[in-house]
Amino acid sequence: MARLYVLLFLAQIVLAVCALISCLSAEEGEIRALPRIAWVLIILFFPLLGSIAWFVAGRETAGTRPRPAWPMGNGDAARKRSRPVAPDDDPEFLRSIEERSRQQDSELFRRWEEDLRRREEDLRRREDEEDRPPA
């Protein structure tokens, strides 16, 4: 008999903890009948009845919440326009990255060519100086 009481006590505690978590994580628009602080106090002072009352009367269930209205017309096109696009899905962003990459590559190649020309000119000058007879 004592085991049954322990089991019921644990079930009551688990139910109260679940009700507290549900109450504290609910949005303001999802709480019915009383303010949040009142529900928390009811659940704490009367764990079994307060938890049951919270799940029955305190929160909105999925069936009582209003469904979001979908835009008129082609739903896919309207949804794509209304929500932000991830950068890797945005063609304009991808084009800007490609253009920036091309510009950086061309600038890098231009610097390499200038450096190569400068080194070649230095090498030619040294060779010309070595080929001249000493005076």
Summarize the SSE layout with pairings:
Layout: H1 2-25, H2 36-45, H3 47-58, H4 75-82, H5 91-131
Helix pairs in contact: 1-2, 1-3, 2-3
Question: How is this structure best described in words?
Answer:
- The chain is mostly helical and 135 residues long.
- It has 2 domains: 2-58, no CATH class; 86-131.
- The protein has 5 helices and no strands.
- It has helices at 2-25, 36-45, 47-58, 75-82, 91-131.
- Helix 1 (2-25) runs antiparallel to helix 2 (36-45), helix 1 (2-25) crosses helix 3 and helix 2 runs antiparallel to helix 3 (47-58).
- The radius of gyration is 37 Å and the shape is rod-shaped.
Low-confidence stretches: none
**If you average the pLDDT, what whole number results?**
84
Let me know the largest β-sheet.
none
Give the count of helical stretches.
5
Helix residue percentage: over 70%
Number of domain modules = 2
Number of strands: 0
User: Which structural class matches the secondary elements?
Assistant: mainly alpha
Strand content: under 5%
Element pattern in H and E:
HHHHH
Instruction: Write down the overall geometry.
Output: rod-shaped
Q: Determine the N-to-C terminus distance.
A: 119 Å
- Rounded to an integer in angstroms, the radius of gyration calculated over CA atoms is 37 Å
